[in-house]
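We modelled the chain as a single entity of 124 amino acids. Its sequence is:
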Amino acid sequence: MSPKVRELLAKYTPNPLALGPSFEAQKLQQELQGLLANLRRIYWVTVAMILVVFVLEVLIAAIYIREPLVLSGIAAAMGVTIWSSVERMSHLSKEMAETTLLVTLSDGLSQEAIERVVEQLLKK
């Protein structure tokens, strides 16, 4: 589980000493939806940044087409860019999938069931 999701769920740890229900499923769902919206924005900002860097690398390669040393450096930079981009996008996709799953579960389950799901997720 991603640190952001774990941190959010930790705020909703059920309090066994509280009198009456202390778990706020609606508030949890709202915060999860907010987190999901932020992750979607981060995802598209990351896509835009990757495209800008890639276009700049291609432009620099076009300018220095006759200099093999510069082209080899650009090829290395492209490799690092692609590797880090795939890594970052993979991490973001995983976070978005976790959050989407929790939003879907919180929408369809009872408050007690959501409380048990949160307890189980925080135990892992």
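As a brief sanity check on the tokenised model: The chain has four helices and no strands. The helical segments are 3-10, 25-63, 68-108, 111-123.
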